[in-house]
Every structure is written in structure tokens, then in C-alpha cells.
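Hi, here's the filled form for the chain we discussed.

Project: internal
Contact: R.S.
Residues: 157
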Amino acid sequence: MQPTLLITKSPEETKTLAFEIARVLHAGDCLALYGDLGSGKTVFASGLKEALGAEGEMQSPTFTLLRSYDKNGGTYGFYHFDAYRLGGADEWFDLGFDDLVEGDHVSLIEWADIVEDALPERTIRVKIERSIESDDDNVRSIELLFPKGDPRADLEF
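And the returned structure, exactly as it came back:
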């Protein structure tokens, strides 16, 4: 299955794209987020959390590994993982994060490449990169890949 390639030209557009993607998410969905430092991962995560109506101020989970946001009237609760400080899939499993990802929240994992072997089969992959084809530092190239057989793969964003 081919990824959908999207271009955003500002942090606001990246956040708006997250809103559009949030409209098609379901409880138990897991999004794996890939990208270098400063690529816009946290901007995307913030937009997703806001779109889901999850309560609480968005904070990077880098030092805590996980931030949990209750739905409190929103669509779904939101788990925001940051795997940057993990040593790999074994540590992910040791911490019991695999049990949380399969719960009733929407989960997003930044630095997902570190725990790639632990990701659920139905994971939605989102790769964010600074566009090398633009001099504008705000332009992002975003690849969106739904799992094989997922009908949402045919949607346009």
C-alpha cells in the first residue's frame, strides 16, 4: 500500500491536517509518528489531542514517556507516548505500554522507530520531514500510511 503524501506550509496547516485525520480515528487506534527533532511531531500531536477533545494542556512527554489526557466530554481520551528515551521494544513491553495502546484511547507514539517491533499490526504511520524542495523552514512533507486493508487508506486529506 502506498503512503499518501501531503504538504503543509505552516505549523497551523500541520495542526489542521491532524484535525482532519482525527475525524476518522477510532478508540484503540495507534499512530506511529516519525521525524527528526523540530520536524513538527509535537505540533501534529497537539492538533490531534485538541481535535479529539481530550482535556489538559499539551506538554511533551519526553521526560515522563507518557502523558495521558482524559476525554472529559471529547470524542476519545488520548495517550501521547515519547519513545525517545527507551532502549527498544523490550523496554516498551516491560513498561506495559503495549496494554495501554490496545485500550479505548487513541494513542500516538513519537519516535516510533525506536519501538517499531512493538507496534500493533493496525498502526497508522505518519512521517513528518522538513521539505527539501523549499527554502521555507515551515514547509513539511507528511507521509500518511494506513495499515493494509484499512478502508481509511482511500480517503483524501
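Let me know if anything looks off before we file it.
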